[in-house]
C-alpha cells in the first residue's frame, strides 16, 4: 500500500508537531484495479469538528494534529504534559500547582479556562470533574494514536463546552502485535524522578481486533527548598516576605495610641505582637520580645515545587464484525491516580482580634498573665511546624463504551451509522493531614493546671477533663509534644463522585449531487445524565476544622440533544473555483435545569487555485453550568474587600452614599474592621461564603475564523497557514467580588445589585457595622472577547546524503483579551499582562526540527513565551523594571517579566531487533523561568518549566 494524497491536503492533515517535529499522513489507500492499472480508492474518514465522513481531510476549521511519533518524541510521560507545550494552550491546572492543586492536569485552549475546552476520546465525551474540566492524566499516553485539536468552537456538533475548541484523543484502533516501553528521567539536581512502564498487546483477525494496554507511571516530587528561585516566597527578598505567623508562640494585644494595652476596640490604635524567646518559658512575660522580621517564618521551603503523581491504568478496546456491514465496538478503562501536595504547618491564630472564638484562657497553665492582677484571655498565634500539611488524593476512573456501527447503501447513496452507550465515573477520596480539630483546640487551650504528679491536666483539680491534653501555643519550635499534636490534630477525609451516562445515535451519508460533488449530511441524538456529589469530612462541614468550612454538594441534570449537519460542495474544477464548499450545522439542546438552547454554524472552503485554500467559519456555542456551579455547597472564604460605608472609603464623602449607608443601618462613624486592623479594603475578620446558584443559565459564545493554507507548487515541500480567530462570550459564569457588589449597591445605587447583596448575598452586619455575613454567589454577568492569529509554516527539505529534514514553526498570537464583570462595566484588556496564576502571553511560538538518517534520528524543539508585565508591589519597588510609571489616575509602577525560550533535544536509534532507544534533554540550556512578584509562593508561574535540565532515556521494543 502506498500513500496517495493531494499536496494541499497534506498541508492540512499531516501532523504538526508542537513538541517534536514529526509527521504522519491520513491513510488514503491505493489499490490495484482489475484491469491492472492503478485506481485510487479514497477511504471516508471523520475529522474532528464534523460528523460527516468525507474523502477529503481538509476542513473549514483549523486543526492541529499530534501523531504517535510526536507523542513518543516529546520526552513527556503524559498527554497533559505534551499539550502543555502547544502554542494555543493557556494556563490549565497541572502537577506543578501545589497550593490549590489536586493532582489533575487539564488543557486550556485560548486561555479561556479548561471547562470551556471540550475533551473527547474517539469522538465521545470523557469523564469530567464536578467543575466541568477533564483530567488528561486519566488517559494513558501509551494508548493514544494521535491527538486532534480543533482550534474553533463546535457546540453545534458536540454540544456544551466546545467554546474555545475541542481536544479529541484517538486511541490505537487496529494495533496488531505487542509493544513494551520503559522510561526513566530526572532533573539535573537529582530529583523529580519519573518512571514509566507500559505494555500494549493487539490481535487482529478477519472479523475483528482487540487491543489491551497496561501502564504505570510514577512521578516523584520536587521540593521548593531545592531551587533558589522557590525556596523563598519572593526570590531575592529573603525574610522580608516571610509569613508573620511565626514558628514561635506570639501574643497579640490591642494597644491604644500611647502604646498601652486596651480592651476597648474603639480606642485601639493597632494590634501589637510579642514573641517568646527561643527556648524560654512562655509563662513568664519577661521572656518575650517585640515581633520583628527575624521572627517571620519561611513557609515557601516546605512546599512542593512539583507534586508527586502515580498512575496505573488498564485499557481494553475491541471491534467484532458481526456481518460485513455491522460491527460491535467497545472500549473500557480503569485508571487510578495517587497524588499529593504539601504545605507548611498550619498557621494557627486564636482570639477575638484574630477572628477566633477563644484565645488562651486566663486559667490556662501556659498563660503568662495567670495569677496576675491583669489576668486575661490572650490572643495568640503559632505555626505548627511540628506537623506539615499533606493533601492526598486517590482517584479511580471507570469508563465503558459499547455500541454498534455499520454502513449501508440505499438509492445509490452511501450511509454510515452508529448507536452506543457510554458510562464514565470518577471516585475520589481526599485525605487532609495536619488540620486542627478546633473543638479539641479550644478545650486544650482552656483552663488547665499542674497536678501533684508534675503533669499538666485540662480543667480544674475538681473537674478534670479526661482524655484532654493541654496545648501550649506559647512555645518554641519543636517543643509541642506528640501527645499535644495527637489531641488537637485530625485527618479529614472527603469523598467526591461524578458520573456521566449517555445514549447516542448518529447517521451520516450522501444526499444529492451538486456541481461540486455529492452533498453530505449527518444527524444524531444524545441523551445524557450528569450527576455527582462532594461529601466533605464531618468536621469540615461543621466548621470545626482549622481550614475553611465547606458544605456538601449533591445534584445532577439530564439533557436531550438533536443535531443536523450539511456539507454542500457547490463548485469544483472550474476557473476561479477548483473547490467551493459550504457547511451548515445546528444543534437543539433541552436541559432539565435551565431549558432550551439552539446553536448553529456556517463554514466555507474555497480553492481559487490548486495551491491555495481559503477557509472561514462562524459558529454559536454554549457552556452549560457544571454541577458545582449549580449545586455546590457553601465554602467559607476570608475575602479582602472595600466597604463604601466605611468612613475612610473614597466614596463615603458623597451625600448619596452616606444616605444609603444610614438607611442600611450602618452606625455613624463606622470604620471597616479587618484582620490586620481597621481600614478600608482589608481582609474580612468574618468568613464570607462562596455559594452556587441553581438558577444559572448557560454561557453563550460566538466564534469566527478566517484564514488560508498556501502550498506553492514552485516551492516543493513548503506549506503556510494563517488563521484569524475571534471568540466572544456573554453571560459568562463569574463570582463578582464583594467590593463590586457593594459599590454597585451603595455607590451607584443599583437596586438590582442591592437585591443581590441582600437576597442571594444575605448581607448582614454586626453591632459595630462590620459585615459579618456575605454570600458571594455565581451569576451569568461577565463577558469575554478574545482575538488573535495562528500562523504555521512547515517545510520538508529534499532528501540529501545527510538524511531528511523536516521543520515546523507554529505560532499563536493574541491581539486582544478583554473581559468585564458585567455588561455595563469597563473592558479590561489583559494581553501581555500577568496576575497570579494567569499569564496572558501575547505570543507563543514553537520551532521544531526533525532529522532522520537510516536508523538514526534526532529532533530539536524551541519553545518561546513572550514577555509579560505585572503590577509592582510596594515592597519590590527597588527591584521593579518601571517603579516610576504613572498613568492618568496616578502612580502605577510595573515590573516586566522577560521572554523565555526553552530548548528540548532527543536522539534515537532503531535497533536491528525491532527496538528503539532514545535519550533526551528538556530545557537543554537550563533556563530558569522569569521571576514574578505576583506569583504565589514560588516566585514564578506554574506554566513555566520546573527549573533545571530534565534528562531522560527510554527503550521501546516491538514484537
TrEMBL record:
All residue ranges annotated as the TonB-dependent receptor-like beta-barrel domain in the record: 362-924
Membrane-spanning parts: none
Keyword set, alphabetical order: Cell outer membrane, Membrane, Receptor, Signal, TonB box, Transmembrane, Transmembrane beta strand, Transport
Record bears the keyword Transferase: no
Signal peptide annotation: 1-29
Domain (TonB-dependent receptor plug): residue spans on this chain: 57-166
One annotated Gene Ontology cellular component of this protein: cell outer membrane
Primary subcellular site in the record, as a coarse category: membrane
Annotated membrane topology: Multi-pass membrane protein
KW Amino-acid biosynthesis (keyword) present: no
Subcellular location field: Cell outer membrane
Family statement: Belongs to the TonB-dependent receptor family.
Protein name: TonB-dependent receptor
Organism (species): Lysobacter defluvii IMMIB APB-9 = DSM 18482
Amino acid at each position: 500500500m502506498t500513500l496517495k494524497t493531494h499536496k494541499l491536503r497534506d498541508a492540512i492533515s499531516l501532523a504538526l508537531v508542537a513538541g517534536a517535529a514529526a509527521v504522519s499522513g491520513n491513510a488514503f489507500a491505493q489499490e490495484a484495479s482489475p484491469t491492472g492499472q492503478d485506481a485510487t480508492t479514497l477511504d471516508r474518514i471523520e475529522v474532528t469538528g464534523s460528523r460527516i465522513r468525507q474523502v477529503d481531510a481538509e476542513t473549514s476549521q483549523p486543526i492541529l494534529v499530534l501523531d504517535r511519533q510526536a507523542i513518543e518524541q516529546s520526552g513527556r510521560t503524559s498527554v497533559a504534559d505534551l499539550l502543555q507545550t502547544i502554542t494555543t494552550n493557556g494556563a490549565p491546572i497541572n502537577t506543578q500547582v501545589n497550593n490549590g492543586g489536586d493532582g489533575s492536569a487539564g488543557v486550556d485552549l485560548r486561555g479561556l479556562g479548561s471547562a470551556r475546552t471540550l475533551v473527547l476520546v474517539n469522538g465521545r465525551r470523557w469523564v469530567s470533574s464536578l467543575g466541568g474540566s477533564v483530567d488528561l492524566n486519566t488517559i494513558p499516553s501509551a494508548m493514544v494514536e494521535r491527538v486532534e485539536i480543533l482550534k474553533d468552537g463546535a457546540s453545534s456538533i458536540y454540544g456544551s463546552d466546545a467554546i474555545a475548541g475541542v481536544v479529541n484523543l484517538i486511541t490505537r484502533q487496529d494495533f496488531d502485535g505487542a509493544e513494551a516501553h520503559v522510561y526513566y528521567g530526572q532533573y539535573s539536581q537529582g530529583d523529580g524522578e519519573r518512571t514509566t512502564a507500559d505494555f500494549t498487546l493487539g490481535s487482529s483477525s478477519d472479523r475483528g481486533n482487540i487491543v489491551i494496554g497496561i501502564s504505570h507511571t510514577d512521578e516523584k516530587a520536587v521540593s521548593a527548598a531545592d531551587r533558589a528561585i522557590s525556596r523563598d516566597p519572593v526570590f531575592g527578598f529573603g525574610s522580608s516576605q516571610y509569613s508573620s505567623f511565626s514558628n514561635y508562640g506570639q501574643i497579640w494585644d490591642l494597644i491604644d495610641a500611647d502604646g498601652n494595652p486596651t480592651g476597648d476596640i474603639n480606642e485601639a490604635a493597632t494590634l501589637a505582637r510579642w514573641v517568646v524567646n527561643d527556648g524560654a518559658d512562655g509563662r513568664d512575660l519577661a521572656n518575650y520580645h517585640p515581633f520583628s522580621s527575624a521572627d517571620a517564618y519561611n513557609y515557601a521551603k516546605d512546599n512542593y515545587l512539583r507534586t508527586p503523581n502515580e498512575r496505573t491504568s488498564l485499557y481494553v478496546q475491541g471491534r467484532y464484525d458481526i456481518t460485513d456491514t455491522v460491527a460491535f465496538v467497545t472500549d473500557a478503562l480503569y485508571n487510578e491516580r495517587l497524588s499529593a501536595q504539601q504545605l507548611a504547618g498550619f498557621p494557627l491564630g486564636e482570639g477575638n482580634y484574630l477572628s477566633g472564638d477563644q484565645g488562651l484562657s486566663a486559667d490556662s497553665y501556659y498563660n503568662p498573665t495567670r495569677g496576675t492582677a491583669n489576668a486575661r484571655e490572650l490572643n495568640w498565634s503559632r505555626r505548627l511546624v511540628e506537623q506539615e500539611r499533606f493533601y492526598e488524593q486517590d482517584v479511580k476512573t471507570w469508563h465503558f463504551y459499547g455500541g454498534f456501527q455499520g454502513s449501508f447503501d440505499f438509492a445509490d447513496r452511501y450511509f454510515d451509522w452508529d448507536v452506543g452507550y457510554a458510562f464514565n465515573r470518577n471516585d475520589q477520596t481526599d485525605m487532609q493531614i495536619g488540620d486542627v480539630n478546633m473543638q479539641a483546640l479550644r478545650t486544650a487551650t482552656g483552663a488547665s493546671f499542674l497536678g501533684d504528679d508534675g503533669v499538666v491536666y485540662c480543667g480544674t483539680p475538681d473537674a478534670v477533663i479526661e482524655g484532654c491534653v493541654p496545648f501550649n501555643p506559647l512555645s518554641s519550635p519543636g517543643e509541642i509534644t506528640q501527645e499535644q499534636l495527637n489531641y488537637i490534630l485530625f485527618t479529614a477525609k472527603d469523598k467526591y463522585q461524578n458520573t456521566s451516562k449517555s445514549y447516542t445515535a448518529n447517521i451520516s451519508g450522501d444526499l444529492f449531487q451538486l456541481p461540486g460533488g455529492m452533498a453530505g449530511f449527518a444527524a444524531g441524538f444524545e441523551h445524557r445524565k450528569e450527576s455527582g456529589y462532594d461529601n466533605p469530612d464531618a468536621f469540615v462541614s461543621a466548621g470545626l476544622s482549622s481550614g475553611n468550612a465547606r458544605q456538601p454538594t449533591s445534584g445532577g441534570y439530564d439533557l436531550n440533544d438533536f443535531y443536523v449537519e450539511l456539507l454542500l460542495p457547490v463548485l469544483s474544477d472550474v476557473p476561479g473555483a477548483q473547490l467551493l464548499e459550504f457547511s451548515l450545522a445546528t444543534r437543539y439542546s433541552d436541559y432539565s435545569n435551565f431549558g432550551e438552547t439552539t446553536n448553529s454554524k456556517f463554514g466555507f472552503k474555497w480553492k481559487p487555485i490548486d495551491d491555495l485554500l481559503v477557509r472561514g467559519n462562524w459558529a454559536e456555542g454554549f457552556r452549560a453550568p457544571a454541577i458545582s456551579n449549580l449545586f455546590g455547597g457553601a465554602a467559607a472564604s476570608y475575602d479582602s474587600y472595600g466597604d463604601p460605608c466605611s468612613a475612610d472609603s473614597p466614596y463615603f464623602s458623597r451625600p448619596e452614599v452616606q444616605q444609603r449607608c444610614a438607611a442600611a443601618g450602618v452606625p455613624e462613624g463606622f470604620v471597616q474592621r479587618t484582620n490586620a486592623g481597621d481600614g478600608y479594603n482589608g481582609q474580612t475578620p468574618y468568613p464570607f461564603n462562596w455559594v452556587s446558584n441553581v438558577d444559572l443559565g448557560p454561557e453563550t459564545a460566538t466564534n469566527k475564523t478566517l484564514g488560508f493554507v498556501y502550498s506553492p507548487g514552485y516551492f516543493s515541500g513548503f506549506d503556510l497557514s494563517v488563521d484569524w480567530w475571534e471568540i466572544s462570550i456573554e453571560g459568562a459564569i463569574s463570582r463578582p467580588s464583594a467590593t463590586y457588589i457593594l459599590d454597585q449597591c451603595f455607590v451607584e445605587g443599583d437596586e438590582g445589585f442591592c437585591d443581590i447583596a441582600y437576597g442571594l448575598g444575605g448581607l448582614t452586619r454586626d453591632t459595630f457595622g462590620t459585615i459579618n455575613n456575605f454570600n458571594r454567589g455565581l451569576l451569568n454577568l461577565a463577558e469575554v472577547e478574545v482575538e488573535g492569529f495562528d500562523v504555521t509554516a512547515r517545510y520538508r527539505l529534499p532528501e540529501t546524503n545527510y538524511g531528511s529534514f523536516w521543520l515546523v514553526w507554529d505560532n499563536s498570537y493574541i491581539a486582544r483579551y478583554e473581559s468585564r464583570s458585567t455588561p455595563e462595566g469597563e473592558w479590561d484588556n489583559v494581553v501581555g499582562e500577568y496576575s497570579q496564576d494567569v499569564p496572558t502571553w501575547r505570543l507563543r511560538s514553537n520551532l521544531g526540527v526533525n532529522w532522520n538518517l537510516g536508523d538514526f534520528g534526532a529532533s530539536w524543539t524551541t519553545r518561546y513565551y513572550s514577555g509579560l508585565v505585572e503590577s509592582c508591589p510596594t515592597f519590590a519597588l527597588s527591584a521593579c523594571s518601571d517603579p516610576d510609571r504613572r498613568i492618568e489616575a496616578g502612580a502605577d509602577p510595573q515590573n516586566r517579566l522577560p521572554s523565555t525560550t526553552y530548548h528540548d533535544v532527543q536522539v534515537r536509534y532503531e535497533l536491528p531487533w525491532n527496538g528503539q532507544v532514545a535519550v533526551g534533554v528538556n530545557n537543554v540550556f537550563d533556563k530558569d523561568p522569569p521571576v514574578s512578584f505576583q506569583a504565589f509562593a514560588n516566585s514564578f508561574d506554574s506554566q513555566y518549566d520546573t527549573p533545571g535540565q530534565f534528562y531522560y532515556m527510554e527503550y521501546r521494543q516491538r514484537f
